[in-house]
């Protein structure tokens, strides 16, 4: 099964992808995680992408497409994948279609999460992530705080804040989302594979709730 997570930063794409990955036993691939790992390990790729990520701009298509396509060719992708953060531009979406059709595969569902902009900023600023790369559980200091400050409930490792999770960079990330990523919502809607979910405190529905609705539907 091939699932795509769509939505602005802070909607809960990573949370939903993480839960679906465990429950459906399909690996999740996050383009942002691949880039952050490369930056942390100071690889060539890390050096190329760090400037864009620090500013909240998108990494150029050519490089992003190359990185993701090579990840998608790895053997663990055979039974499917949940793509979190890719595609993010029309060029990436078109390239992905071409890549999958060459492999005789297709996207089963595009899960589009929608949250009011004012909630997104507040959420991202309060987001904390488990530093254990096998865990990566996401907490929120206001909505879903860890039981012990700074420590992951699940694995006991330290929680960290992403460098780009501050208001200034987040505003740039939102601008790139609305300008460059939002158009692919219609691209997938026109193909009839888009499902949109409102994720908002106002209706008391968070990423975890959407994930649970989806599990019963997809299992
Ligand atoms: P979020 O959705 O919260 O912004 P991600 O972890 O998906 O976080 O992405 C972090 C950053 O990595 C983005 O701001 C962008 O700079 C870069 N990035 C991730 N995925 C892509 C992509 N598909 N195309 C271009 N840049 C990307
Ligand atoms: Zn953890």
Architecture overview:
By secondary structure, the chain is an alpha/beta fold. The protein has a single domain (about 1-115, about 165-219), classed as Rossmann fold (3-Layer(aba) Sandwich). About 45% of the residues lie in helices and about 15% in strands. The chain contains nine helices and eight strands. It has helices at about 15-25, 30-40, 45-55, 60-70, 90-100, 115-125, 165-180, 185-190, 205-219, and strands at about 1-5, 30, 80-85, 110-115, 125-130, 140, 160, 195-200. It has a five-stranded parallel beta sheet with strand order 2-3-1-4-8, with helices on both faces. A hairpin with a 7-residue loop joins strand 5 (about 125-130) and strand 6. Helix 1 packs parallel to helix 9 (about 205-219), helix 4 runs parallel beside helix 5 (about 90-100) and helix 6 (about 115-125) packs across helix 7 (about 165-180). The longest helix is centred in the last third of the chain and has 15 residues, at about 165-180. The radius of gyration is 17 Å and the shape is globular. The mean pLDDT is about 95. Zinc ion (ZN) binds next to loops.
Provide key terms for this protein.
Rossmann fold; alpha/beta; binds adenosine-5'-diphosphate; three-stranded antiparallel β-sheet; 9 helices; globular; five-stranded parallel β-sheet; binds zinc ion; single chain; 219 residues
What are the SSEs and their pairings?
Blueprint: E1 2-7, H1 13-24, E2 28-30, H2 31-40, H3 44-55, H4 61-72, E3 81-84, H5 90-102, E4 109-114, H6 117-125, E5 127-130, E6 138-140, E7 159-160, H7 167-181, H8 183-190, E8 194-198, H9 207-218
Parallel strand pairs: 1-3, 1-4, 2-3, 4-8
Antiparallel strand pairs: 5-6, 5-7
Helix pairs in contact: 1-9, 2-3, 4-5, 6-7
The protein binds adenosine-5'-diphosphate (ADP) and zinc ion (ZN).
């Amino acid at each position: 099964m091939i699932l795509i997570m769509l939505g602005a930063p802070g909607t809960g794409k990573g949370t939903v992808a993480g839960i679906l990955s465990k429950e459906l036993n399909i690996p999740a691939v996050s383009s942002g995680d691949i880039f952050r790992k490369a930056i942390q390990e100071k690889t060539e790729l890390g050096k190329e992408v760090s400037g864009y990520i620090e500013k909240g701009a998108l990494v150029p298509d050519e490089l992003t497409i190359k990185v993701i396509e090579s990840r998608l060719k790895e053997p663990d992708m055979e039974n499917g994948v949940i793509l979190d953060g890719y595609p993010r531009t029309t060029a990436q979406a078109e390239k992905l279609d071409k890549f999958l059709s060459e492999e005789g595969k297709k996207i089963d569902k595009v899960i589009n999460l929608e949250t009011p902009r004012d909630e997104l900023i507040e959420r991202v600023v309060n987001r904390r992530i488990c530093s254990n790369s096998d865990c990566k559980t996401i907490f929120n200091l206001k909505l879903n705080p860890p039981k012990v400050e700074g420590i992951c409930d699940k694995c006991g490792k330290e929680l960290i804040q992403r460098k780009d999770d501050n208001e200034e960079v987040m505003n740039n990330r939102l601008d790139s989302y609305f300008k460059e990523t939002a158009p692919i919502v219609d691209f997938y809607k026109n193909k009839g594979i888009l499902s949109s979910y409102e994720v908002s405190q106002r209706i008391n529905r968070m990423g975890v709730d959407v994930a649970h609705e989806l599990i019963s539907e997809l299992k």
